[in-house]
């Protein structure tokens, strides 16, 4: 089939599909109160939700990088029994409904959960319905994006470079820090950006595990949900902010995910 000639039977559903995806976003932009946008962004409710979302998403991303990069390295380089099963378990949060993830976190990290009870009795720490709980919930749903991206980069990297470094006397930690990590840095950056964007937009696990307390656990997605009933204009403003973040993420990763 010629590249310039498209079968008519495919053009119509393609256009309908494009309209289905694009028209809601266009409608959101058309209904945005652009003149009031700066004022609403710095209003008390919107400003608190925006600041809390940026803080929690950034902290969750740090947690994901610290834990996810070593996990990706183990999956890509380690000879572990049941590695396929471990990889499947790591990717479960990608397909698991976020609300179910929040329930699972609550059952394990709640005050009556096996881990949460120990944290409460030993350290006096209670994660549910706190800002720290928001960070935990966002990290839980966002970490697989980082792990998959970094593991893919590690598998694509040439292991002979690491072997050469080892023959020159470099320790495993030095090889990882000076050879492996720089070679997969584009994958780490891409995974980090995707992880941060996913954490910023998390709703289900957050509201289930951390609740919805203004100034403490009410992030932007939760604020959008609440504002739809009382202040639709504020909901539109917050939605536009989240849309802008999504577009910025796609633009920054266009060569990796879109350019192809």
How does this structure look, described?
This protein is mainly α and 260 residues long. The protein has 14 helices and no strands. The protein has helices at 8-30, 37-41, 44-77, 83-95, 98-109, 114-123, 131-156, 159-167, 172-183, 185-200, 204-209, 220-230, 232-252, 254-258. The model has no long low-confidence stretch (mean pLDDT 86).
Unreliable spans are: none
* Helix-and-strand structural type: mainly alpha
Order of helices and strands: HHHHHHHHHHHHHH
- Count of helices? 14
Proportion in helices:
over 70%
Rg from Cα: 22 Å
> What is the overall shape?
globular
Q: In percent terms, what proportion of residues is strand? A: under 5%
Average pLDDT for all residues: 86
Q: Could you describe the largest sheet, including whether it forms a barrel?
A: none
**Number of beta strands:** 0
* N-C termini distance: 21 Å
Helix-strand layout with pairing:
Blueprint: H1 8-30, H2 37-41, H3 44-77, H4 83-95, H5 98-109, H6 114-123, H7 131-156, H8 159-167, H9 172-183, H10 185-200, H11 204-209, H12 220-230, H13 232-252, H14 254-258
Entry keywords:
globular, mainly alpha, 78% helix, 260 residues, 0% strand
Short description:
The protein has helices at residues 8-30, 37-41, 44-77, 83-95, 98-109, 114-123, 131-156, 159-167, 172-183, 185-200, 204-209, 220-230, 232-252, 254-258. By secondary structure, it is mainly alpha-helical. The protein starts with 7 loop residues before the first helix and ends with a helix.
């Amino acid at each position: 089939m010629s590249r310039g000639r498209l079968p008519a039977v495919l053009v119509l559903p393609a256009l309908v599909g494009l309209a289905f995806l694009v028209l809601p976003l266009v409608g959101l932009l058309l209904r945005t109160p652009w003149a009031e946008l700066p004022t609403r962004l710095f209003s008390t409710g919107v400003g608190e939700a925006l600041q809390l979302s940026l803080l929690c998403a950034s902290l969750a991303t740090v947690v994901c990088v610290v834990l996810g990069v070593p996990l990706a390295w183990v999956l890509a380089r380690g000879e572990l029994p049941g590695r396929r099963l471990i990889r499947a378990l790591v990717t479960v949060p990608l397909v698991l409904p976020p609300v179910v993830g929040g329930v699972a976190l609550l059952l394990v990290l709640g005050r009556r959960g096996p881990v949460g009870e120990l944290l409460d009795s030993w350290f006096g720490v209670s994660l549910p319905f706190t800002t720290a709980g928001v960070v935990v919930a966002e990290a839980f749903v966002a970490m697989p994006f980082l792990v998959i991206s970094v593991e893919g980069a590690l598998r694509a990297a040439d292991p002979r470079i690491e072997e050469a470094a080892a023959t020159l006397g470099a320790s495993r930690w030095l090889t990882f820090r000076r050879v492996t990590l720089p070679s997969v840095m584009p994958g780490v950056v891409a995974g980090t950006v995707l992880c941060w964007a996913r954490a910023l937009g998390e709703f289900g696990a957050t509201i289930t595990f951390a609740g919805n307390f203004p100034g403490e656990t009410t992030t932007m997605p939760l604020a959008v949900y609440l504002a739809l009933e009382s202040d639709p204009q504020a909901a539109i403003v917050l939605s536009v902010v989240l849309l802008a973040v999504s577009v910025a993420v796609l633009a920054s990763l266009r060569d990796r995910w879109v350019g192809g």
